Structures are given as C-alpha cells and as structure tokens.
Amino acid sequence: MQVPIITFSASSPSLSSKRNPYFVRATVNDSTQVKAIAHFVQNFKWKEVVLVHDDTDYGHGIVPDLVDAFRDVNVAVSHRSVIAPSATDGEVDSEIDRLKAIWTRVFVVHMASYSLGSRLFTKANEAELMSEGSVWITTDGLTNLFENIYPSMIDLMQGIVGVRPYVRRTRKLVEFIGRWKKRFHKDHPDIDASEPTVYDLWAYDSLQALSMAVEKTLGISPSGLKLLNSLMNTSFDGLSGKFSLVDGQLMSPSTFEIINVVGNRKRRIGFWTPEFKISRSATSKTDIKSVFWPGETNDVPRGWEVWTSGMKLRVGVPGNGGLTEFVEVEQDSSTNKTRIGGFSIQVFDAAMKALNYSVPYEYIPFDEQHRMWTYDDLIYQVYIKKFDAVVGDFTITANRTAFVYFTDPYSEPGISMLVTVTEQNQKGTLTFLKPLTSGMWLTSLAFFVYTGLVVWVLEHRINHNFGGTLSHQISIMFYFSFSTLAFSKGSPLVDDISQAIQKIGEERKLEEIQSRFYGNTTTCQDRVGVVPSNRLTLDSFWGLFLVTGATSTSALVISLATLVYHEKETGELSSPRAFHDFFKRWR
C-alpha cells in the first residue's frame, strides 16, 4: 500500500526511509544530539563515561553514534548497562550494584520510558549513587519528559543534566501554550497543567504539515505518491521551529539546550551549537552557568570514585630483565617473600601517600618465563585487565598511548618532541647578512684581505696574472680571496624544542628520592640563561681562523726568509743600495 506513515516520536537511527520510502519521520534523529553530549563531557575534562540504556531498538540505536562521538573527543565508554523495560526491581537493583562497583561516576542515560527511568533513579538514590561526586546526563528521551515529572520524582532527580533540542519561544508558541493550558484546565480542573513537550509540538506541526499537503493534492489523483511528494515539499514555521523534511525526516536542529534539575524547576544552563560547542549563549562563546550537581553541590565532580572495593589495586612491575635501578625485584629465600624496590617504586609510593584518600595496592612482578618479554608486553597487560596499573621506566610513545593513559613523567628527559620548524622568511635587502654576526663578517673580511695579500706576495714575482698595474694587482688579489668562500646550503640554524619536564608534586620529595639513587647533581654545569643562537658567531670558528692565519703567516715568513737567504748567498745584498734594489724588484 502506498500510504505515507508519519511519526513524531520514532527517533531511533535504526529507522530509516531508505527501507520504506513512505516512512516519514516528523521528528529529529537521535544521533543529532550525540555531539552535544560528548562536548558537554569534554567541557568538564572527564575521560570515561558509563552508558545506561534500555534494551529496545530505541536504546540500542544511538549506541554506535554515541560511542563514535565520545571517541572523537578522547572520552572512553568504559561500561554499558542494558536494562529491559520489563526488568523487575530486583534486576534493576543488580544493575545498580554493578554500576556502583566500578570507578567511573559519569552516567549517560538513554531511555524513552518514564516508568523505567523513574525506577532507575529511585534505585540509584537508594544505593547512594546519586550523591556528591556523581554525574547523571540524560538524552532528550527523558529530558523532554522533565515537564511532566511528578513532584515526588523531582526530589530524586536533583542535579541531573539533560540535553534536548532547543525550541525558540516565539509569540506563536506562547499563544499556543496559553490555549493548551486553558483547554487542559477545562478538561482536568483538579490537575495543574504543565507545558507541552517538544513531542507535543512535533505532533501538532506534523498534523499541520499533513493538512497542508492534503490541500495541495485536492483535485489531483489521491495516490499515496502524490501525497508523499506534497508532504516532502511542505515547509513552514511551526511551533517547534522550522518544519522541513530532508531525506524523509525532520531537518536536524542546529541548537540544543542543556537543562539542569534544581529544586522543583528545570533550569537552562547553556546551549550547544556547531559553532560555539558548549556555551552559555547560542550566539557567542561564553562559559555555561554554574551547574547544580547531585549531592547539592556546585563543585565539579571528578568523574570517578575513590577505590572502595575490598580488592587491592593490581600494580604490575617489570620482573627479571628490567633495569634494577628503577625497579628491583628480589626473592628472599629465608622468608620466601618478594621484595620490590627501586627509584620508580619509591616515587609511586610517595605519590600514593600524597593523595587525600587511601587506595590499597599491591605490586605484582611481570616475568614471562617461556619467552623474552618486552615493555610493550607489560603495558598490554593493563589493556587486557590483568593489571590495573604498571610502574617502571616506561617511555611514552604514540603506539602505547592507544592502549593506556600515562601519568606525567617523573624523571628526565621527561617529554621530548621533535617537530618541524617553520622558517620565518623575512624579506629585506640585507637578509643575506643574517646567518653571520657583524663580528663574524668583519673577521672574515679581514682574513680574506690578509689571505689575498699573502698570496699576492708569494705569487706576483713568478705568476704573470698577478702583474700589471697596481689596480689590476689589487683586483686579482681580492678575486682570488673571495673565490675560496663556500656558502652553506639549507635553512638557518634554529633552536631545538625545549624538553618539558613537569613535576608530580610541589613538595621536594622527588628531589630527595633522586638524590638517594643518583647522588647530588648540583655539581653539573649550570646552563640557566644559556640561550642558543640561530646566528653563526666568531666563537664557533676561532680555531679555523687561527689555523688560516698561522698558515698564511708561516708561508709568508718562510718565503721571505728563503728569498733573503738566496740573495745573500749570491752576494746581491752586500750593500744598502743592494737592499733597496732588492725590495724594489720584489715589489
């Protein structure tokens, strides 16, 4: 049958007009809100979330898009909790117990059933899972129902943050709400009328769109295809905003509002837009309003709970084969106990003691007896949940960050980065002078002249190219000097990227530990204030100039001494007149 099917509540991404071209979704796809939720989590720097959803097509449909959105902002979905709509109170209790046993305290709830959602929050309150330190975020499925929550339920939802499409409060909408409440009070005089939800507005707009489409097809063949095409081409400003169908579904909203349950009211704390992400205003980038979190606090939760289970934190350490200066594992034969020490161990112990809460932990040596293990193997044990953490002399590399998180480095060299440097090309007439300092240029020029002079002294008597007029001899001398200059290729020298070393605490305990293991390092040369230059100075080439000057001078002295000795042997320097004639000929 070619009959258009119009829905204003089926928002699951699994439903699509591609399978049934006569399926018209007069509501937004659930996947449109995933970026708003992910950016809200990113805004508070939480690294892990727990996804709680019902076991329906609606609940499962958003999961792939939501996981991808969190991955894009470097947030991991550590656990998923799936609850059937028909679950008993005991089954909901069991699921709450599982949630309480994990560290993560940021929960994203995606449900469309008010009944299941109310039972979930009731049980979470009973288990003190909605106390201070927890974060509960609801998708639009529950957020759109906030207007119809019973007063008894409001008390259980204090501090919850919800995301839903933003509907601008136009004059048309205000007038409709007035008529809505008046009609509701007439039919139910004993019940306080609540405002219509966005689902009510979508339903109203859907009926208006259908009536407009039917009017367009009057007098035309009343086929389903004609009506469908007319409906797809219908566009108007409805109660919920711009009504326009794109690819069989309502055009995605560009703005979502973020709601916070405070007292007996729902308070807007900000918006999400593609341009400004999370912001107090939909038209500019500003910090969102202060959030009232579960536990009646405005302090931002850290997103994870202190270790409360009876189990100890499993800390893996390198066994035999690692550097004993960092981690040393010894087996006491008399007591059959393993003693673990070293620089890394003492740093970890000091860091754990510095926490303002207690976390029990134990060291577990990692030693693959059947093969040679690597540090990658040890790190991988955290990924497969064999260890909760590892301590040792690990290098932070790109491939390892795909499996684990690293703390700040606690020893030099710390974090090093090798990056390309963008050459700053400054146009100017004298730019070619930049590689050398003025002292380097003057010294080089002096040595060019001196070298040319020495060559001229040695060559002009026997090489006819050095003869002729005085100006010709001078030009030949400088030509010969500059032809020996070699220009370096490539860009000018630039400073290396400094190594960034961050301390693990403000106390000086780390320095004390380093002193115990490595001794006092204060005797090292103090390099503070030494700034490398990107220009060549005389300090870098004084040895070369010394060799050049000494060689040229030695050649000149030897040449003159040889010449004088030869003239004396021949008797041509027997009188002052002979000396005068000798120097005249030499010149």
From TrEMBL:
Subcellular location: Membrane
GO MF, one example: ligand-gated monoatomic ion channel activity
Any Gene Ontology CC annotation: membrane
Alphabetized UniProt keyword annotations: Glycoprotein, Ion channel, Ion transport, Ligand-gated ion channel, Membrane, Receptor, Transmembrane, Transmembrane helix, Transport
Major localization class: membrane
Source organism, top-level taxon: Eukaryota
Domain Ionotropic glutamate receptor C-terminal, chain residue ranges per copy: 312-520
Keyword Methyltransferase: no
Record bears the keyword Membrane: yes
Ranges annotated as spanning the membrane: 439-458, 470-488, 541-565
Membrane disposition: Multi-pass membrane protein
SUPFAM superfamilies: Periplasmic binding protein-like I, Periplasmic binding protein-like II
Pfam families: ANF_receptor, SBP_bac_3
Subunit (UniProt): May form heteromers.
Function (record text): Glutamate-gated receptor that probably acts as a non-selective cation channel. May be involved in light-signal transduction and calcium homeostasis via the regulation of calcium influx into cells.
Protein name stated in the entry: Glutamate receptor 2.1
